[in-house]
Write a structure and sequence with these properties.
Blueprint lengths: L9 E2 L8 E2 L1 E10 L4 E9 L3 E9 L1 H5 L3 H24 L2 E5 L4 E7 L8 E6 L5 E5 L5 H13 L4 E5 L6 H6 L5
Parallel strand pairs: 7-10
Antiparallel strand pairs: 1-2, 3-4, 3-9, 4-5, 5-6, 7-8, 8-9
């Protein structure tokens, strides 16, 4: 793979890492499922899953004014111009999940009612879920993430519907 800013050739010094982040699949314009709402980009990379969270939103002043779309467009430009490193560097929070630290990654297509969802469940600690606001083709995403998981020993589950049970949804509302 040739490293260019558009395909994720980047360096990252967080977590003791200083070599290129080889992005296998980039998921852009996701939103956390807990408050405060944050936008997120997910980078399924050779060595880990990176989640860059940015842009704290409120329903009235963030979503109601279209701030989430502007922030996502800014993140897209940042990725196109500077690669994954630039997005990770500008993020408010970066979560790095090494494959051995993941219990599973679950994808749901959103059914007829909701948006697609990616849930990240670490082996220990609290998981995080992200609703996807920009998914060109869900089946292609599910295939790419499943392939990523197989190559790293990570269980990837794909399903229909909105995903997440009532207990999981309530737990996300509690502080970490």
């Amino acid at each position: 793979m040739t490293r260019t800013p558009a395909d994720g050739g980047a360096t990252r010094d967080a977590g003791g890492r200083d070599d290129p982040v080889e992005v296998v699949r980039h998921v852009h314009f996701a939103m956390t499922g807990s408050f405060p709402l944050r936008l997120a980009d997910l980078f399924f990379a050779d060595d880990a899953l990176y989640v860059a969270e940015y842009g704290h939103l409120t329903p009235l002043f963030g979503l109601g004014t279209g701030e989430h779309r502007r922030a996502a467009a800014d993140a897209r430009r940042t990725y196109e111009e500077g690669g994954a490193e630039a997005v990770l560097r500008r993020a408010d929070t970066v979560r790095r999940y090494a494959p051995e630290a993941l219990d599973r990654v679950t994808l749901h297509d959103g059914g007829w009612l909701g948006r697609p969802r990616v849930a990240v469940s670490p082996a220990t600690g609290r998981g995080h879920a992200y609703r996807l606001h920009e998914v060109p083709e869900f089946d292609a995403l599910a295939d790419a993430v499943s392939e990523w998981g197989v190559g790293r020993g990570v269980t990837v589950e794909c399903g229909s519907g909105i995903g997440g049970g009532p207990v999981e949804r309530l737990a996300r509302l509690l502080p970490e």
